[in-house]
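Would you be willing to look carefully at the protein I have copied below?

:::
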Amino acid sequence: MGDPAPGIPELALPAGGSEPPVPDVEAIVAELQAEVERKRAAGAYPASLLDRLRTEFHPDEGLEPPEVSVLIQSSRHLRSDRPVVGSAIVFAKRVVRRLLAWYVAPIAEDQTRFNLAILRELRALEQRVARLEQPAAGTRDDPEKETGPRART
C-alpha cells in the first residue's frame, strides 16, 4: 500500500491479525467530559447555551397529534407586507405557482397518500401493542381453565 494521507494517523494492527484494535469507549468519554469541563471553566460556552442544556428534555411536550400534519397542501395563502411592491410580488408568486402546479400538486397528493398509509399502520401498531400489554384474562395458573389438545387427555 502507499503512505497514509497527511494528517491521518495510521492504525496499528495487532501482530498476526487483521482486525483493528477495539477502541476504549470509556476512556474516550472520560476524555471528552474532561475537555468539556475545561472549556466550561474557561468560559468558552455562553451562559444562554448552558441554561438551555440544563432544561429537561420532553420530546412529546406541545406536539400536535400526527393527524394534524397528514394532509399536504400544494399551495398556501400568498401575501406580502411590502407597501409599494407587495402586490407585484404576490402577483409574480401566483404566476409561478400556476406554472408549477402541474408538477407540485401530484407530489403533494402522493405525499398525503403515503402519510395516511403510515398513520394507519402507526395506529394499528398502537392498538396491537395495547392489546399485548393488557394482561390476558384467564392466563393465571388455573388448571381448570386449560384448553387445547393437552386439556383433553
Q: What stands out?
A: Residues 22-55 form one domain. The chain is about 50% helix and 0% strand.
